[in-house]
Amino acid sequence: MIKSWILIFAGRPKEAEENARLAIRINPHYPPTYLHALGRALFYNGQYLEAAKIFKRVVSLQPERPNSYVPLAATYGHLGRLEEAEAALTKLNEIAAKYNYAPLTVQEVGISLEETYPFEDSSYPEPMFEGLRKAGLPEGAAPEGEEFDFKALVSLHVGENGRYFDVEGVTKIDVATVKALSDRGVTIIDVRDPGSYARGHIPGAVHIDLNTELTEENLASLVKKSEDVVFHCWGIICEYSAIASAKATLWGYTRVYYFDGGLPAWKAGGFAIATN
């Protein structure tokens, strides 16, 4: 099945479909991930009717997994089955709400696809976004056409200790520097979801959900473009604060700091944690 995913990433959905069907025939006790790969291959080959049937089976096998509903809603969007698409998105958000996650947006799906699926052609996932827009999924904090401008500034690297991000034009800082800036009253912005922020955050940090609230207007209400501002999220493996830093830079902020260690580094430093 790994080969099927590689073929999907390479933009060869027809071959991915053939490989996925072969894997299903060979392993009669296949897990839902086999069907997910087959559905993705059919989707990216434009075979939406068949893809919908497959994704519906995936959802029946994983009814409490919110990500299973994303491609189903997008497929229904392309087919014009908007009531079914709306129902899929409603179910997804109901599951997400159990964990205090904000409602899904096109921007969040785009970030997730970029992070999880290494497509050879960056434009290849566009049918997924298009289907979700047709299904009625809101764009998110960024307007359509500007959702992914940050990609030009954010770079992903893989080192000995795992993956990490750099942001062009942004200063990366450690926990000691964050503490010093916090003591000076510099604005620290936590861009995680509301539930994560409520369970624990840096004292005094302002919460702005990356996917639903981080707009140029909202940021301007908190900090001037010439003032210091720090962004953080879940830690080095999370790209949310890198994206937030890039967005602020694109909007003209000149003193942006990227705390890539995030809340885990703050905790490891022995500093206090606030809760709501």
Description:
It contains 13 helices and seven strands. With 276 residues, it is an alpha/beta fold. The protein has two domains: 2-134, Tetratricopeptide repeat domain (Serine Threonine Protein Phosphatase 5, Tetratricopeptide repeat, Alpha Horseshoe); 149-268, Rhodanese-like domain (Oxidized Rhodanese, domain 1, 3-Layer(aba) Sandwich). Helix 10 (194-199) links the parallel strand 4 and strand 5 (206-207). The longest helix has 16 residues, at 82-97.
What's the arrangement of secondary structure elements?
Blueprint: H1 2-9, H2 13-26, H3 32-44, H4 48-61, H5 69-79, H6 82-97, H7 106-116, H8 126-134, E1 154-159, E2 162-167, E3 171-172, H9 175-183, E4 187-190, H10 194-199, E5 206-207, H11 216-220, E6 229-232, H12 240-250, E7 256-258, H13 262-268
Parallel strand pairs: 3-7, 4-5, 4-6, 6-7
Antiparallel strand pairs: 1-2
Helix pairs in contact: 1-2, 2-3, 3-4, 4-5, 5-6, 5-8
Short characterization:
Helices cover 49% and strands 10% of the residues. The chain has 276 residues and is α/β, with parallel strands linked by helices. The model has no long low-confidence stretch (mean pLDDT 90).
Q: Strand-residue fraction?
A: 5-15%
Helix residue percentage: 40-55%
Look at the helices and sheets and give the structural class.
alpha/beta
Radius of gyration in whole Å, from Cα? 20 Å
Give the CATH topology of the largest domain. Serine Threonine Protein Phosphatase 5, Tetratricopeptide repeat
What's the overall average pLDDT, rounded? Answer: 90
H and E order: HHHHHHHHEEEHEHEHEHEH
In the predicted model, the low-confidence regions spanning at least 5 consecutive residues are none
Assigned CATH class of the largest domain: Mainly Alpha
- Overall shape: elongated
CATH superfamily of the largest domain: Tetratricopeptide repeat domain
Arrangement of strands in the largest sheet? 3-7-6-4-5
The main pleated sheet reads as: 5 strands, parallel
Total count of helical runs of at least 4 residues: 13
Number of strands: 7
**Count of discrete structural domains:** 2
| End-to-end gap | 44 Å
Which architecture of the largest domain per CATH?
Alpha Horseshoe
